[in-house]
Design goal:
The chain has 124 residues and is mainly α. It has helices at 2-16, 18-22, 26-42, 52-68, 82-119. Helix 1 (2-16) packs parallel to helix 4.
């Protein structure tokens, strides 16, 4: 139950992070950081064979960065120094890759533990 609450909180936080991403200036960076925090939070919702919340949050974050964020979007971004833009893309890439790796590792560990417990027979 708690993992489901954490998952829904992460998805809602990622949705709420889209609003400041539209506003130009520092608010778009705040929206980026908020959406990355939501992605890290979504890793806490991984349970047996379920990466649903992680994938939903990941999609919202990537769409928010590539399409909506006023400083980082692909089409017609606001003028920003190149080194700052590359640093923000790098930060986003590290958090995206790290969160996905952590979620997959936790899921694989859960699957391995479940198969160990189900393959052992109860003592007679």
């Amino acid at each position: 139950m708690m993992r489901s609450v954490i998952g829904w909180t992460a998805v809602l936080l990622a949705l709420l992070a889209l609003a400041p991403s539209i506003v130009p200036g520092a608010m778009s960076i705040f929206g980026l950081l908020l959406s990355l925090a939501a992605l890290i939070l979504s890793v806490g919702s991984v349970r047996h064979h379920s990466l649903v919340y992680v994938h939903a949050t990941l999609i919202l974050v990537v769409v928010g960065i590539m399409v909506i964020n006023s400083g980082l979007r692909i089409g017609d971004p606001l003028p920003m120094p190149l080194h700052l833009k590359l640093a923000l893309y790098g930060l986003a890439g590290v958090v995206l890759a790290g969160s996905l790796y952590a979620a997959k590792t936790i899921d694989a560990s859960n699957r391995r533990d479940k198969s160990k417990t189900s393959s052992t027979s109860p003592p007679s």
